[in-house]
Amino acid sequence: MQLPPPADWIAGTALLQGAPEAVIADCAARAGRREFAAGDVLIRAGTRTASICFVLAGTVEVRLPGSAAADAAIAQLGEGKVLGEIQAVTGHVATADVVAVTAGALLEIDLALRRDIALGFPAFDERLVWLATRNLRTTVFQGAVRDLLRGCDPLLVEELGAGAAEVVLERGEELFAQGEEADAWYILTSGRLAVVTSTDDGSRKIAELMPGASVGEMAIIAGEARTATVKAERKATLMRISRAMFDRFADQHPRFARNVMSAVVRRLAGKAPSLRVAARVLVVLRISGHPMLDEAFRQLCASLQGAGGAAIRTRTDFESAVGYRIDPQAAESHPVWMPFDVWLEEAQSAHSLVVVDGGNADDAWRRECLLQADHCVWLVEPVAQGLADPPPEAMAALDAARRWAKDDTQRLPWSLVIAHPAATKAPRNTRAWLRGAEFDRHFHLRVHDVTTSDRAARLLAGRGTGLALSGGGARGLAHVGVLKACAELGIAIDWIGGTSFGAIQAGMFAMGLSTDEMRTLNLEVIAQRPFQEYTLPIVAMVASRRRDASIHHSFGETQIEDLWIPYLAVSTDLCSAQAVVHESGSLGLAVSASSSIPGVLVPVLDGERILVDGGILNNLPSDLVKHRAGGRVIAVKVAPDDELVAPEGGFAPAWKFVLRRLVPGMKPLRSPRLADLILRTLTVSSASRMAQVTREADLLIEPDVASFGMLQFHKIDELIERGYRAGLAALRGWSERR
């Protein structure tokens, strides 16, 4: 086969036009040449290559794998065209076969030669990246149109792409607003879009769109206004097909119009291929180069892979994919970043969660990672006890990162993971980090303790299991039995919350106590008889000295933010008539406030707030726990709905109650006592919303404890057993169904 002189031919290509003679000569000497016959498969779908090839002679065809022969060809390429540029630049696998139509030859430039050309002629890399990015977006556009318009002529798809205009949106920028006239149809080729609807009740995001999504075609067909606002969650590129162009194609190509109508009908009928759920990009940043943080990062990544099937991506992975190292000072406009978006999008197309290592340095790599992030996670070391704030250099790193991640339309979620040495028994001084920076959530990770990293991973992936424990006096001891059943069945609790006596049991569990240790601690508290220190009923019937001592005995000076397991408690502020959710500060104060029965126990003063039992407004905080855990929530209800019955013949006189306390064996009175009346009054207002909060739960467990009195703490073992049996019965099937 007669081929043109390599040097002259190479110098005339768009990629190398203007290159120094030495670069051209080196390329001509080192480039490989491969002849092919008609029918040869030159590139096979699913394979990777770091080389690029020029068609020296002949014609090749790009074909969709697995398609019918008539529909397989999507493009023909002749002399001078480039093959493999998308795979070489992005590290993508090939998505189509390249098959020779006629005999011909290829000129192949491998990775080593590519690097040397770029050193002598930097414009080569810039041109190659531009070409690959353009062709990738064209591929995405054509694929989306083919999927939408089934059976559409490939030449028509190509013609449609040639007439479409490219639109670029910066993060937070609107494509169109709800109520606007529909003037175009769009195909998203890179980035991510959010679809938001607005009503009198506010705005709500109803969908997220990823590359390949079709946007706005239904409004074009119907001739109606936009039904939602669409805006960029990340920098996005779209192809715009104007209404005039759409109408012209519909007039000139009747089959095009029929295919579009069919696509709209399929979507309205729910039979169209569903859009991919947008994968989350979680960027993990280390505050320093401390070896413990490197180990914690590896441990967290392993847990994220186990919890959510996460894909882990690093700077080294990207450099290997594109074939060159990243300059730490590379500007945002540098062409090296052009393939970064598509590199991440490939990972998102195959995984629901992508974890990117943002490193430990404030450089260009960290900046680009943050610009693509949906969630930022900081791995930090504990602040030494006694220090009020993190080190200045740590705060400077946080401030720098926030500048890059700044988004005026949608604040990026920030989470804190504090890595502790393996010997740490309990976290301390977490408040220093929380006071010094604005984090949405925080978690504790103990190096070499996978239970802590697994918990953080599930919560970060939105797959946590929460447990909400209701109030109910002594009946709340059944919560210990439910927790015992969870432990036996291997159901890890990632977030726990409670009200009243449920808040006390939740606090013990969040400190890391086993159910045996919880039983022992409860017995110690019961022995102190904190509810039998009666006093003049000026503020309450029971004095606070014993109660305060029992709370301190149980929880000491523990701070909620220092708990291994995330925790919340609910109390009621009598001053504002609002529920108070305790998620930081003194654990002892939180459980005291949440369980301070008005009239029975002295309220808790917290600044200008008078706090009493949370059961007044929310006796089962499953709604709060579900929102925080992000996955499933188990609710345990120990306060029966019909617990108070009117006595026949009126209320019994006081002497009859006294007599029965003095004479064992007498038949108990079926008449409510003062404590019963107060406790029932306490929960009346929250009973009306109990049905709503129980609906928030994925599983509701109701131990059979109605026959136990609200103050029968001495029946602890029976109550724990009732909770254990109810927990086993409900959780065994539930865990299997999960």
From TrEMBL:
* PROSITE patterns attached to this UniProt entry: CNMP_BINDING_2, CNMP_BINDING_3, PNPLA
Annotated protein name in UniProt: Cyclic nucleotide-binding domain-containing protein
Superkingdom to which the source organism belongs? Bacteria
Which SUPFAM superfamilies does this entry report, sorted A to Z?
A: cAMP-binding domain-like, FabD/lysophospholipase-like
Into which family does the record put it? Belongs to the NTE family.
Q: Where is this motif: DGA/G?
A: 613-615
Any single GO BP term = lipid catabolic process
Q: Which residues form the PNPLA domain?
A: 467-626
Active-site residue numbers: S500, D613
Query: Motif GXSXG, which positions?
Result: 498-502
Xref: Pfam families? cNMP_binding, Patatin
Signal sequence coordinates: none
Gene Ontology molecular function: any one = phosphatidylcholine lysophospholipase activity
InterPro entries according to UniProt: Acyl_Trfase/lysoPLipase, cNMP-bd_CS, cNMP-bd_dom, cNMP-bd_dom_sf, NTE, PNPLA_dom, RmlC-like_jellyroll
Q: Which residues form the Cyclic nucleotide-binding domain?
A: 15-110, 148-267
Q: Where is this motif: GXGXXG?
A: 471-476
Q: Which UniProt keywords apply?
A: Hydrolase, Lipid degradation, Lipid metabolism
